[in-house]
């Protein structure tokens, strides 16, 4: 496995709003972390959150250090499959002795097919049977490749791997939202959500990592830490299987959001490649404007994404001051609001008719005041954008509470009166833990909770 992110330096610091390992918290369900820093690193080696309490992790997160392979070391108990790592034979992604078809863009697939003595036309026919929007099969094995040359099918059965995910379960929420659980080859599990809409704008929410390294304090997935990145094929196949298994039930799936488990831009190589496959005109043919990649604010990767991809970008903002954002989103300590928003202003100057989507999770008493609304208006000045207000979805162990509906509407009206384009995202699938911020299953060892700034302690105690 190549291209792993390494922790270059660990620095112990005190003071500020950082939490201390072993500190007890005054709120119910607040988990005390009994581990010393070194013990935590041994048990949680793949965690790469930029700032974990008093441990400041200096990450190599720039685009120059990204690679198609998994960016983190696997845990000692986990052996990663080859398809999740680097290139295989002759530069082609391999799983055991077979090439993984869904790891390749069309040009790569065509080259591979020609290397076996077959014409480019055969490659195009194969591509359409893997992804074609007018094909209802979306082939998962060589036996489903109807209409292809017999010898070509035989070659594929001997040398190619079609499938990287195994469906474990489908859970249906009371509002019709579907949560799909997929088991990976190494035994890990990821979750994908299909959100039906009466207007026909059905959406699949896909994961890019197993767990997440960002440790956002309001997110259930963040409690897991990071297990590993998903390969390109593991990302793409979520959308393929959602269409294959659920289109007949919920209708055509027209939208893709990279808002499932993980920080997509922390796995930027595989995410950009997967997005390219999703929008290919001869394949799944999603509109680039209907494929949205979300990020917590990794600035170097964000710049690269805007330069290399035509897909939409969503940025999780969630606070209007650095103090609050650094508490609930530790990535802000590395890339603060000024740097993040300044980078967006600069990059979007060259993107014609492009708007970024700011996501704002409403946390009662934390980021939902009238003053926050006014600051938010000032923060987004000069950035072509839409603002998506999201109701917080509670989960076990969380001490945050959702903002009341009346206050969300008041917050929205202040933004709208100032000329902002504002959307409200309703909770979907929360009774099956399928809503925003609810995916995953933390184990016994969890990412640490951070110390609450003093001005919010009384608010959270009252809400508990």
TrEMBL record:
<keyword id="KW-0411">Iron-sulfur</keyword>
<dbReference type="Pfam" id="PF04055">
    <property type="entry name" value="Radical_SAM"/>
</dbReference>
<protein>
    <recommendedName>
        <fullName>Radical SAM core domain-containing protein</fullName>
    </recommendedName>
</protein>
<keyword id="KW-0808">Transferase</keyword>
<dbReference type="GO" id="GO:0008173">
    <property type="term" value="F:RNA methyltransferase activity"/>
</dbReference>
<keyword id="KW-0489">Methyltransferase</keyword>
<dbReference type="InterPro" id="IPR027492">
    <property type="entry name" value="RNA_MTrfase_RlmN"/>
</dbReference>
<dbReference type="GO" id="GO:0070475">
    <property type="term" value="P:rRNA base methylation"/>
</dbReference>
<dbReference type="GO" id="GO:0051539">
    <property type="term" value="F:4 iron, 4 sulfur cluster binding"/>
</dbReference>
<keyword id="KW-0698">rRNA processing</keyword>
<keyword id="KW-0408">Iron</keyword>
<keyword id="KW-0479">Metal-binding</keyword>
<dbReference type="GO" id="GO:0046872">
    <property type="term" value="F:metal ion binding"/>
</dbReference>
<feature type="domain" description="Radical SAM core">
    <location>
        <begin position="198"/>
        <end position="431"/>
    </location>
</feature>
<dbReference type="InterPro" id="IPR040072">
    <property type="entry name" value="Methyltransferase_A"/>
</dbReference>
<dbReference type="GO" id="GO:0005737">
    <property type="term" value="C:cytoplasm"/>
</dbReference>
<dbReference type="InterPro" id="IPR058240">
    <property type="entry name" value="rSAM_sf"/>
</dbReference>
<dbReference type="InterPro" id="IPR007197">
    <property type="entry name" value="rSAM"/>
</dbReference>
<keyword id="KW-0949">S-adenosyl-L-methionine</keyword>
<feature type="region of interest" description="Disordered">
    <location>
        <begin position="66"/>
        <end position="94"/>
    </location>
</feature>
<keyword id="KW-0963">Cytoplasm</keyword>
<dbReference type="GO" id="GO:0030488">
    <property type="term" value="P:tRNA methylation"/>
</dbReference>
<dbReference type="InterPro" id="IPR013785">
    <property type="entry name" value="Aldolase_TIM"/>
</dbReference>
<keyword id="KW-0004">4Fe-4S</keyword>
<feature type="compositionally biased region" description="Low complexity">
    <location>
        <begin position="66"/>
        <end position="78"/>
    </location>
</feature>
<dbReference type="InterPro" id="IPR004383">
    <property type="entry name" value="rRNA_lsu_MTrfase_RlmN/Cfr"/>
</dbReference>
């Amino acid at each position: 496995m190549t291209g792993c992110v390494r922790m270059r330096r660990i620095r112990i610091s005190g003071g500020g709003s950082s939490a201390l390992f072993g500190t007890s918290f005054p709120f119910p369900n607040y988990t005390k972390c009994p581990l010393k820093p070194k013990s935590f690193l041994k048990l949680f080696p793949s965690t790469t959150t930029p700032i974990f309490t008093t441990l400041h992790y200096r990450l190599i997160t720039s685009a120059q250090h990204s690679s198609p392979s998994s960016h983190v070391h696997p845990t000692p108990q986990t052996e990663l499959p080859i398809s999740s790592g680097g290139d295989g034979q002759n530069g082609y992604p391999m799983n055991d002795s077979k090439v993984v078809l869904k790891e390749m863009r069309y040009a790569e697939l065509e080259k591979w097919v020609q290397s076996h003595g077959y014409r480019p036309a055969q490659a195009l026919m194969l591509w359409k049977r893997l992804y074609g929007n007018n094909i209802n099969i979306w082939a998962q094995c060589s036996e489903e490749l109807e209409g292809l040359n017999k010898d070509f099918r035989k070659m594929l059965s001997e040398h190619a791997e079609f499938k990287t995910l195994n469906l474990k379960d489908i859970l249906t929420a009371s509002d019709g939202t579907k949560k799909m659980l997929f088991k990976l080859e190494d035994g890990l599990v990821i979750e994908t959500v299909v959100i039906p809409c009466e207007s026909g704008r059905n959406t699949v929410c896909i994961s890019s990592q197993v767990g997440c390294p960002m440790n956002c304090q309001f997110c259930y997935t963040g409690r897991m830490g990071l297990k590993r990145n998903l390969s390109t094929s593991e990302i793409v196949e979520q959308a393929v299987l959602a269409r294959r298994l659920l289109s007949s039930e919920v209708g055509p799936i027209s939208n893709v959001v990279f808002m499932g488990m993980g920080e997509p831009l922390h796995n930027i190589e595989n995410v950009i490649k997967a997005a390219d496959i999703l929008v290919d005109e001869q394949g799944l043919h999603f509109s680039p404007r209907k494929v949205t990649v979300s990020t917590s604010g990794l600035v170097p990767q964000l710049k690269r994404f805007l330069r290399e991809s035509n897909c939409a970008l969503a940025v999780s903002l969630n606070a209007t001051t650095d103090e609050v954002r650094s508490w609930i989103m530790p990535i802000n300590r590395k890339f603060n609001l000024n740097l993040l928003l300044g980078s967006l202003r600069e990059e979007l100057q060259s993107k014609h008719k492009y708007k970024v989507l700011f996501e704002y999770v409403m946390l009662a008493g934390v980021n939902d005041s009238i003053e926050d609304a006014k600051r938010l208006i000032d923060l987004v000045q000069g950035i072509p954008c839409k603002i998506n207000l999201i109701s917080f979805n509670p989960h076990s162990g969380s001490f945050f509470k959702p903002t009341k509906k009346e206050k969300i509407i008041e917050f929205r009206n202040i933004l709208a009166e100032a000329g902002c384009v504002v959307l409200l995202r309703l909770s979907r699938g929360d009774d099956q833990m399928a809503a925003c911020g609810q995916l995953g299953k933390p184990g016994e060892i969890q990412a640490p909770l951070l110390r609450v700034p003093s001005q919010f302690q009384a608010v959270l105690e009252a809400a508990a």
